[in-house]
Specification:
With 281 residues, the chain is of the alpha+beta class. The protein is built from 9 helices and 4 strands; from the N terminus they run H-H-H-H-H-E-H-H-H-H-E-E-E. Helix 3 (76-92) runs antiparallel to helix 4 (96-109) and helix 8 packs antiparallel against helix 9 (210-247).
């Protein structure tokens, strides 16, 4: 009869061993959820592109028109791509004028965009290239997109580092001068009051004359309150400069290369805000 050996595993080790599969399942679940979320973000435009490549123009049009009707959900690059794909659909269905308008809208948003010659008909590629060469971006689009350079986020970051810097960055020189002067003043006063407080404290602690102890303590207490007041003022200046840099529009400019005022039977207006990178807002 074969020998049978029984090994007793300590309870802590057993618990750890039992947790490994559970942790593995939890990790896989989290990864799958994150992957699913990422797919949800990019799926509509990619799905529309696959539909165009499969010549399923009805499905592609539905997807693309839904995306274009909500431009704030797309980056500028993706919105340009959506117009390009819809132009391909229109041209394939012999709606040449609509295709022209869509292609021009795509070029408004991204002058460097072009159809992929590996998947798009040479005829469409040639038509698109003609539009690009004719520089008609400013005259033929039914939809106008205006790109506005919003410098508030960058200004807020600068004012977070140094109050007033963000205001100067936005071209608000008066505000910048006031904020930076107030910051320097309150900072200097805070440092000076802290030094005075420390000196008053040391004098109080070193005092040996009973008749002078109370006076030394009062002086120390007064210097301490003064330091706290200046410190609070410094914090208020910092916060005010940051909030102003983030909220005040400042010298917001329209990028001229992206502006197109066009006549059309149906004029839509889209506003694209650029926060460091090109995004829709």
């Amino acid at each position: 009869m074969p020998e049978v050996k029984v090994t007793t595993v300590p309870s802590s080790r057993a618990a750890s061993t039992a947790l490994i599969p559970a942790l593995f399942v939890v990790l896989c679940t989290m990864l799958s959820v994150n992957a699913g979320s990422a797919q949800d973000i990019v799926r509509p435009l990619d799905r529309a592109e696959r539909a165009v490549e499969a010549l399923d123009y009805t499905r592609a049009r539905t997807e693309l028109e839904a995306l274009i009707s909500n431009p704030s959900s797309l980056t500028i690059a993706d919105l340009a791509r959506a117009h390009l794909l819809l132009g391909i659909v229109d041209y394939s269905e012999n709606n040449i004028q609509n295709a022209r308008s869509r292609f021009v809208s795509a070029l408004q948003l991204d002058p460097s965009i072009k159809p992929d010659p590996r998947t798009v008909s040479p005829k469409i590629v040639s038509f698109f290239g003609t539009l690009q060469a004719e520089a008609v971006v400013r005259s033929d689009a039914d939809i106008r997109y205006v790109t506005i350079v919003d410098n508030r986020p960058a200004a807020a970051l600068r004012s977070m580092v140094l109050p007033g810097w963000g205001q100067f960055y936005k071209g608000e020189r008066t505000k910048g001068f006031v904020a930076s002067t107030a910051w320097v003043g309150t900072s200097g006063a805070t440092v000076a009051s802290a030094i005075a407080e420390r000196r008053a404290r040391n004098l109080y602690l070193d005092e040996t004359d009973p008749n002078q102890v109370a006076a030394r303590f009062d002086t120390w207490n007064s210097r301490q309150k003064m330091r706290k007041t200046f410190l609070a003022s410094m914090a208020v200046v910092w916060l005010a400069a940051y909030v102003d840099a983030l909220a005040s529009p400042g010298d917001t400019r329209i990028a001229p290369s992206r502006l197109s005022v066009v006549p059309g039977q149906e004029l839509g207006v889209g506003v694209a805000w650029r926060f460091g990178e090109n995004r829709q807002h």
